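A student in our group prepared the protein record below, which I am reviewing. Here is the record exactly as it was handed to me.
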Amino acid sequence: MMEFSLWKNLKRQLRRKRRPTWSLGAIIPFLLAGGLLLAEAELVLAAPDISAEESMIHRLENEKSPLTVELHRVYVCGEETKPLGRMMSKQVAKLLLGHPEWKAELDASKSLVRVEQRVEDLSEHCKANAYMGVDKQGNLNLYDGIPKKEKVVRTFFQLDVRYMESSLPQDKLDQITNGIRISDIEEYNSVLSTFSDYAIEQNQKVMQPAY
């Protein structure tokens, strides 16, 4: 009986020793598969991202006819469109490569390329006509012309009028009520920064200075 008991215990120990070996053998294929998947994921993440400009340049390579090119400048205040004339696709591609910050799109007819340039300045029209003022709702606005004509170009944020009236001298209040003439980007940023202190927080949509 004792020999039988010893033999039984020995078999149990052998089974226990075999289990880890069998488990490891079963896990190894999964580990290898997981490693391959991880390697593939790293390759995907490391793949170069094709920008919209590069995609546009590739599309232009297939265009053989001359293209009409327009430059659309978007200013902090105002917009302007300037024709750049007729160009071959290689010339347009060279233009875009020289200005990677520009955005371009080819219209449906594939005969017109619109190029967009962002300019941290005021357009010439804005430099001659822009005002900042407050409307009846207390919103600080950018106007094309004097505020009384109510030709709003952009609304920045709503002002806490009572707080502003109790904090600012009368001449400053008169200026913002009648409209402050904005002739350059420095004045634009200065007025915006000054009156952002009086924005109502819960409705605050403060726009940051252009730079």
In short: The first helix runs from residue 2 to 46. The first strand starts at residue 67 and ends at 77. DSSP finds seven helices and eight strands in the chain. The CA atoms of residues 73 and 117 lie 5 Å apart.
